[in-house]
Amino acid sequence: MLKVWFFFALAFLASSLSSAHAKEALDLVIIETLPVPIVAESRGEFEKELIRIMPEHDINITTYNAEGSEIRAKEILDELAQESKPDLIVSVATLATRALNAAEEFFETPKLFMVVSAPVEEGIVPAIGAVSKRNMTGESHVLDAKVKLDMLDGVLRASNPETPFTIGLVHSTYPSSSNLVNQLLALDSEYENINLVAVSTPYLEGDDGLVEMTDSIVASLDQKSAELDGYWLSSGPLAEAKGLVKKVNEKTGLLPLFAESISSVKKGALIGVVSEPASIGKSAARKAKLILQRKSARDIPVGKMDTYTVAVNVTTAIKLQLPIPSSYLKLSKEHVYQ
Length: 338
Prior knowledge:
The protein is of the alpha/beta class. Helices cover 43% and strands 20% of the residues.
């Protein structure tokens, strides 16, 4: 009889210990606007970092691709509204975030965005540093327009130009891209060495749309090449287009004087400043941890990334006879390309 009692006691103890160490399950939904590199890589880094910093939880992540369409993002949310609410919804890039922010079905559900350049213009918050009333938080991943213009002006000014550099602001009508270009144009008159000209193409969804946008921009730059000294490759889907820099250069001889991706600097852009996907994903994961530990997203201000990578291409600088300040080279460190 004693042996039987001892057996059941051990079984009960093992069961209790197992229950005490069982991981709490958390359900996350990620909706990405489209799987271009900065979106897919940031999302991947987010997932890895969140699992790493919350080892005591069993994190179940379901990812949806909105295929570059705000309408598709809304459809995904409508479908999700028929299911039990997740612990957190994460949106990646502008169109998915716009749809999520407007979704009344998820008004009370904690929400987090990343890879959104203009959260103020998107109506998420009235100002950087403010909190959202819709239980959403996140970070802008781009530098202020003035800081970027100051950096480019520092390079151009060092060459003592006799006339301003006329720079085409290459962008699509994708929301974040248009917002950034408008910010740059509003500051144009403050820089005597810079003359900005908008070069736009309508935003088209999907992979085929990206190819069409690329061809349209190449044709537009070709028409304006005689009046341009270079171009500015703004953030958004076009900045992720494969072969754009090469195609423009082959057709027009023009190179980007500023780009918002490191890959474009490798391919010939003079200078670039960007938050890299690893930084974006890890920073978002830290905010997600706070929310999943039951801190309201309403109490976390929407901010800006504080980690940026500077890159320069010395071959382009030599070709354009533009001396790169030594301070920029120090900032660039391992991101000096030729």
